[in-house]
Write a structure and sequence with these properties.
Elements (H helix, E strand, L loop, with lengths): L8 E5 L3 E5 L5 E6 L4 E6 H17 L5 H10 L7 E3 L3
Antiparallel strand pairs: 1-2, 2-3, 3-4, 4-5
Helix pairs in contact: 1-2
């Protein structure tokens, strides 16, 4: 984990995706593990992500973390906000 993510807690994790978030819910990092990409979300992007995440979790409560996070990554458009992480 990089230094900018040290104040974040792991919220959900699967084989392909991980979600970290701040305790106050104002910052998130959505990671695609195989691609080594991460979307760093704060401000309005974080607020929108939190709302979208809650909607998907409520609509599909039995989904595993990878299913939920993949839905947000692909269909939610958060992959467009991602940048490649350093090796």
């Amino acid at each position: 984990m990089d230094a900018s993510a040290t104040d974040l807690n792991l919220l959900a994790e699967g084989q392909d995706f991980a979600l970290l978030g701040s305790a106050d819910g104002r910052r998130f990092v959505l990671r695609s593990k195989p691609d080594h990409y991460a979307a760093h979300l704060d401000g309005e992007d974080a607020a929108r992500f939190k709302a979208d995440y809650d909607i998907v979790r409520n609509q599909f409560p039995t989904w595993e973390a990878d299913q939920t996070l993949a839905q947000l990554w692909d269909q939610g458009g958060y992959s467009w906000l991602a940048a490649q992480e350093g090796e």
